[in-house]
Amino acid sequence: MEPMRPVIIAANWKMHTTPADAGRLALALADATAEPDVVRVICPPFVALAAVRDALTGRDVAVGAQNVHHATAGAYTGEIAAAMVAGLATWAIVGHSERRRDAGETDAQIGQKLRRCLEAGLRPILCVGEGLEDRDAGRAEAVVRDQLEGAWASFAAGSPGEVDHDAALATRLVIAYEPVWAIGTGRTARSADAAAIARVIRATLGGWGWPRGVAEAVPVLYGGSVTSATIDPFMAEPDLDGALVGGASLKVEEMAGIVARAALTARARRAAS
Ligand code: PEP
Fold this sequence. Notes:
Layout: E1 7-12, H1 19-32, E2 38-43, H2 49-55, E3 61-65, H3 82-85, E4 91-94, H4 97-102, H5 107-119, E5 123-128, H6 132-136, H7 140-157, H8 166-172, E6 174-177, H9 191-205, E7 220-223, H10 232-235, E8 242-245, H11 252-272
Parallel strand pairs: 1-2, 1-8, 2-3, 3-4, 4-5, 5-6, 6-7, 7-8
Bound molecules: phosphoenolpyruvate (PEP).
């Protein structure tokens, strides 16, 4: 039988909001999206994590960081370690394409970030996705597979002899498929193409030696210009389990529509299970 995966809507606020206004926005979003069938996560800038955490007390909305450093601690001026985020957040985005592009993050570092997340008790959302040239050249699947394998190789090599985090990764990992050309452009992927990549993702995870069925239970989200007007075809794909939302996640009305549509899928899946 197919595993019942959660439906997740994660908000990536990127470099928007201040500690002074983030709490208010988080509260408005939480109240406008109160759907018990959908797992909701808000990822504000680091400096607003405490304000958002405090504002969401008593609401069933998780808080996530937008990044963590690949090292546990050290001489990394201006960086934030996963352990510093623990207590402020319970999730973290890693490997977002804007960080791969702007900070030159490598798959090897991203694999280490996954390990740091698990050590700090954070649930990682690992972002993967191809650029337009690779999509046009028919290399999208290969790029995503390489990103996953690169991160896995470095994750698996990290800290042998310490606590074994493989089992934790298998049960806590969430993947966001975000084609780079769809992020912030107003252009979405075709839902069938995103679902095909989700199958490639689970097939790749299936080769990592995890217990049978575990890869099938990993939620795969779609990200890239999701709005209340564009989410429906993605939520209609059985291989996709929600969305990572950037620009639209700053708008209360938009998020209300997105989460309401995701809730329809979540309830339909529960009824069919
Ligand atoms: C993102 O930042 O992960 C994202 C998908 O952005 P947008 O929704 O604005 O395309």
